[in-house]
Structure of Amidohydrolase family protein:
Amino acid sequence: MKISRILGFCCLLLPPLASRAQAPPAALLLRPAAVFDGQDLHPGWAVLVEGTKITAAGPADQLKAPAGARTLELPGLTLLPGLIEGHSHLLLHPYNETSWNDQVLTEPLALRVARATVHAQRTLLAGFTTARDLGTEGADYADVGIKQAIDQGIIPGPRLLVATRALVATGSYGPHLAGVENLPQGAQEADGVDGLVRAVREQIGHGADVIKVYADYRWGLGGTAQPTFSQEELTLIVQTARSAGRGVVAHASTAEGMRRAVLAGVETIEHGDGGTPEVFRLMKQRGVALCPTVAATDATSQYKGWKKGQDPTPPRVADKHRAVQAARQAGVTLVMGGDVGVFAHGDNARELELLVQDYGLSPLEVLRAATSGNAQVLHLPDRGRVAPGLLADLVAVAGDPTHQVETLRQVRLVLKGGVLYRQP
Ligand SMILES: [Zn+2]
């Protein structure tokens, strides 16, 4: 079983040389209507790209391109740093197509990987040039191979930070089927000192850029969310990961799960629905960011029958509103990440749109967060801004996204590492 799955995976990723990405041109001068540099909008700026990097950005009339440079006129477009997706699952597809249980239990690994290659392309063409992919949900270490395929130019996709299998306390996660023993699980079960140290190191050894832990899950009586790992276990996970230079992110939606994870030293909390003002103050104190994943809550509520705009707000959506408001009041940094995979890859902008339309953030706030903000939280100083020396990961959209978030759907140009993947 295990061997055939591994072989299927390897064969799928043999490089078709013809589809390798083209080398970047020597120099490319981009002349949009305006440049959003990760912080502010600059009308009349141009950007020079040489090789894989940005080498100059500033007022168009002051920017000299080297001889032989190709010029791309981008009238009416705003050029911005490639967007950074903070929370995706390339190996999942929307739950209203196939339930999470069925994806984990019945879909062959090769099918999941094949889908994921398409998801990666859609993510990139939607203007997201980097994604933090937070768990394969039962697809072992397939994210590491997908990342390699992208980095080697075999398939188009965003630069990936991968979490591999993620860690769950034994018995706490899923799938569960009454009376069936030893079902494959959506993440790696590990407990206690030896078990957790070993599991963290295994995941790092297999290529994890970040360790993801489920600090709570819906394993309480009546399916309520309850904490999973003890404080000591979470602290040990963070220490083990940090010693190898990896940060830890925690799935947590209960106040107690969040509190333990924050005290343990995780860098971001994913979801955070049940966060109290006290917990968010603690997050602010410890410099822990919140990735609220409002788009996933919105999507799953609609999958369960919520007719948005007609029905009253479901309790889970109301909780999310309370949490985002409390986090903002406490001054907690927000990570832009929608838990894409719960809804369609390529629809990543949904998180930013909802935060503006339903949660009261400004387009400028979400745009800063999805570029320079996410780059800072994710420790990616080489991207997220338009400035000399940074990676030439750039996107152009029709209109002004600092005033109208909907323009993020009008992606006209995508450049990653100086290579054009989409152009007008
Ligand atoms: Zn997730």
User: Anything to note?
Assistant: The first strand starts at residue 27 and ends at 36. The chain has two domains: 19-82+385-422, 83-377. The first helix runs from residue 2 to 12. The domain at 19-82+385-422 is CATH 2.30.40.10 (Urease, subunit C; domain 1).
